[in-house]
Amino acid sequence: MRIALGAAGVALMSIGLALLVAGGQFKDVALWLAGAVVLHDLLVAPLVLAAGLLLALLPARGLLRGALVTAGCLTAIALPVLLAPGTPGNPSVLPLDYPHNWLLSLAAVAAVTGAALAWRWLRGRRARRTRTGGGHQGL
Fold first, then answer.
1. Is residue 3 situated within a structural domain?
2. Are the beta carbons of 65 and 55 closer than 8 angstroms?
3. Residue 113 domain-assigned?
4. Same domain, yes or no: 63 and 49
5. Please, what's the b/e burial string for 52-90 (b: 16 or more CB within 10 A of its CB; e: otherwise)?
6. How far apart are CA 60 and CA 31, in angstroms?
7. C-alpha dihedral sign at 80, 81, 83, 89
8. pTM of the model
9. Are the C-beta atoms of 102 and 78 separated by less than 8 Å?
10. Residue 14, domain member (yes or no)
11. Which residue from 7, 69, 78, 119 could staple onto 102, CB 3.0 to 4.6 Å apart?
12. Does residue 134 share a domain with residue 70?
């Protein structure tokens, strides 16, 4: 099964490569891929490592890392639309206000993370109060 799936994958990649070369876009795609590697190695990876080091000092690092990964994925998905020059000639191509919606998505991630942090803090506070005997005792 693995060999059959691997052969199908190689065949599909070969078809894609042939279409890429035949379409005359090979240089553009190669330039874009090289730019992506450079951008990742010089900007994205150092930022992720620095954020990881800073978050390692915090008690709620798991929630914060999850929020940063989610925000990063949303940004990576929205980046082509955010960097698109001007408005398209056909208004039905990008009919929504994508930068605004991207910011709303990031705000939602921040709000959910804040709520989860508040919930964790309140739950910990309640647990500390009951352990120390400061909680409400029945009659």
1. no
2. yes
3. yes
4. no
5. eeeeeeeeeeebbbebbebbeebeeebeeeeeeeeeeee
6. 40
7. positive
8. 0.63
9. yes
10. no
11. 78
12. yes
